[in-house]
Design goal:
PA2169 family four-helix-bundle protein; single chain; elongated; mainly alpha
Length: about 140
Amino acid sequence: MTDKIQQLNDLIEITRDGQRFYQHAHDEVKDVRLQALFRDMSQSKTELIRALAVKVSANQEKPAAGGTMVGKLRQMYADTKAALVSDEEATYVAQLEEAEDRILHAFEDALKDADPDVHALLATQMPTVRANHDRMRNIKQSMQ
């Protein structure tokens, strides 16, 4: 597997962490507005994963199918913290905003040293990645 494909698969795994966390948080919160937000954000991650996976497959490689241990631990931490505090929804929003930070930084880092082919793909996806990040940051700030 080339460095380019490994880099794309790493991004797929980190993005899948976010997608799964949004799905999980959707099932945990009661606020229908947050459920709709989390559903939208999960769908956005699914589309991003699809775009990255197409590029991996175009290079006759297999796209990553899982997530990361860090992503799973972050979700477990959010569940534990939400169980201990009175405002579980704010806890999930804060943790999801941190997941967005992780995704944004991973894409920014990948852009720095990506070959031209991958750079073009990532550059087209960055507006969505940034918009998702900013959306969760703004929701988090509005809840504080």
